[in-house]
Predict the structure.
Amino acid sequence: MEPQKIKIFLEICPDEKTADIAFSLVEKVTAVVVKIIGKDGFNALYARSLSLTVPTFPWLAVSVMTLQDDDMLVLLKNSFVAQPPAAIRVASSLLLITFSDILCQLVGDQLTARILHDAFGGEIVEAVLGERRES
């Protein structure tokens, strides 16, 4: 699945709000996933997603190397704030798609679609799952 479709969603926001909106998307999926698989399950999925995203975006490595249960998302937010909007858009797209791919492998397409729909609403879900079905 290519990150382009979520990136397009992020491109409609003003540059000065990119970091906040990207982080908000991560927070939304976090809230829904934690309800289903718990904080430890989310932390494991999130850490794996970050580790797969770091080769493309080395500036996220600080988040991976200093992971603590309570501050993982704070580190991500701080990483986003320090980057230009274009980098935030692409990195957050890849991170969210990587996370959803891993989640899909664990719980299946239908439950992943439901989780993403609850977190993001239908617009992003259709973009993400539409691309998954094409690949």
